[in-house]
């Protein structure tokens, strides 16, 4: 439930060195159909791809299906794995609740929970999360929740790709399990970077992310 404003702070930190082009998640009913829609809209030539959260998972699936179209891939706040049981249950509860009661926007408590300890009182970030959610609204929320319930693990497939691959994760991201991080760091193929923040890494650590992006996409 984020739009182009997710990248504003990071783009500001990048300056003119690299330009980020926001791609909205296509309004399709399944992850496979979303990837197919992206295949039609993204360039055929190899591209530098960057994905956050659900977008990070979609970028991973796109990359394993079309590896010839990827130059480099960076995934933020996602591990290209199946949903945790707890997260799937939360999404099912949310779907049932919205279907019965309608959607009035992300509560402040939920927005705060997405942030790391140092930002839980940051009203600018909290308001931005709520404003992006409000802009996208109930239809997009329902589509994103429904389409991502069945999310196959593609992390093992990423071990076999030949393009450079980097994962950037928040140390205090409650949506990522320690077991998965341990699994990833045990694979030499994966470049895993950790930073002090919650789930909303581009909002919480834009300068750190800009530095990582510059080094990674310029091939350093």
From TrEMBL:
Residues 30-93 form the AB hydrolase-1 domain. Pfam families: Abhydrolase_1. Keywords: Hydrolase. GO terms for molecular function: hydrolase activity. The keyword DNA repair does not apply. SUPFAM superfamilies: alpha/beta-Hydrolases (SSF53474). It comes from the Bacteria. InterPro entries: AB_hydrolase_1 (IPR000073), AB_hydrolase_fold (IPR029058), AB_hydrolase_sf (IPR050266). The keyword Nucleotide-binding does not apply. This is Alpha/beta hydrolase. It comes from Marinomonas foliarum. The lineage of its organism: Bacteria, Pseudomonadati, Pseudomonadota, Gammaproteobacteria, Oceanospirillales.
């Amino acid at each position: 439930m984020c739009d182009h404003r997710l990248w504003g702070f990071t783009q500001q930190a990048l300056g003119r060195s690299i330009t980020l082009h926001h791609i909205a998640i296509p309004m399709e009913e399944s992850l496979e159909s979303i990837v197919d829609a992206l295949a039609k809209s993204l360039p055929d030539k190899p591209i530098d791809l960057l994905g956050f959260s659900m977008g990070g998972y979609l970028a991973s699936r796109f990359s394993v299906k079309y590896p010839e179209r990827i130059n480099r891939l960076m995934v933020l706040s996602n591990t290209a794995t199946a949903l945790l049981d707890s997260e799937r249950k939360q999404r099912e509860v949310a779907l049932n609740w919205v279907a019965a009661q309608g959607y009035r926007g992300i509560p402040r408590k939920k927005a705060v929970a997405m942030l790391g300890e140092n930002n839980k009182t940051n009203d600018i970030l909290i308001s931005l999360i709520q404003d992006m959610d409000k802009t996208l609204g109930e239809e997009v929320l329902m589509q994103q929740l429904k389409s991502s319930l069945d999310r196959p693990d593609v992390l093992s497939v990423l071990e076999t790709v030949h393009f450079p691959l980097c994962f950037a994760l928040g140390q205090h991201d409650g949506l990522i399990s320690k077991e998965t991080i341990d699994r990833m760091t045990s694979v030499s193929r994966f470049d895993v970077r950790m930073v002090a923040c919650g789930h909303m890494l581009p909002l919480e650590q834009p300068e750190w992310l800009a530095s990582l992006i510059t080094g990674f996409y310029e091939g350093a």
